[in-house]
Specification:
Layout lengths: L30 E5 L13 E5 L5 E10 L4 E10 L5 E10 L6 E10 L4 E9 L12 E8 L11 E6 L30
Antiparallel strand pairs: 1-2, 3-4, 4-7, 5-6, 5-8, 8-9
Length: 193
């Protein structure tokens, strides 16, 4: 990609420039190089290049599933993905009743997920939290993950899992539209509440 900017700089003068550069969600390089070219005469070009690293954090819940064990416990399993360019540390994955504003039922802490790495998580909740006496009543859990880092995209941090009183999952549990800032999996909005 090339982006042009014009300015005049007198001999011996220094100027700071800044420009907005849109970054793709599929960014896969950490380093950006900027080259300065002079439109008139090129006397010395050895010092016309500067490089910088891009720090991109994007943690996602790729999928989650629920099942009822033989002991009538609710088993929640899922996958977290570090879609960014940096290692992410101190990751907290919360399991909430129904939505992100519901009661927090459990929390799984993961020390580090390296850039591009996928890890699995698992939690067991008491089965008596379900409406087992009412076979028509649906249950839902929100699985939401976050870290201490500011992210580029919060829309993919959560997945809502819907299931019946027998522990049968009724939705995919996948983060299917993680680039949509109004992802309904989060109950509306794209930032943590």
């Amino acid at each position: 990609m090339t982006k042009d900017m014009e300015m005049e700089i007198a001999a011996g003068e220094q100027k700071m420039i800044s420009m907005d550069l849109p970054l793709s969600q599929e960014l896969n390089r950490k380093e950006i190089t900027v080259e300065l070219s002079v439109s008139q005469r090129k006397l010395t070009t050895e010092n016309n290049t500067v490089s910088t690293e891009i720090h991109s954090i994007d943690l996602a819940v790729a999928q989650a599933s629920v099942s009822l064990t033989e002991n009538k416990e609710l088993l929640i399993t899922g996958t977290l993905v570090n879609k960014g360019l940096e290692d992410i540390t101190n990751i907290h994955t919360g399991i909430y009743h129904s939505t992100l504003t519901g009661e927090k039922l459990d929390e799984i802490v993961t020390d580090t997920i390296k850039a591009g790495e996928t890890v699995t998580f698992q939690s067991t909740l008491p089965g008596d939290m379900m409406y087992q006496d009412d076979t028509k009543q649906l249950n839902a859990l929100m699985i939401y993950t976050e870290s201490d880092f500011e992210e580029r995209n919060y829309a993919n941090n959560g997945v809502r899992v819907v299931f019946d009183a027998k522990g049968q999952q009724l939705n995919s549990g996948k983060n299917e539209d993680e680039n949509d800032e109004n992802n309904p999996n989060l109950g509306g909005g794209n930032t943590p509440g």
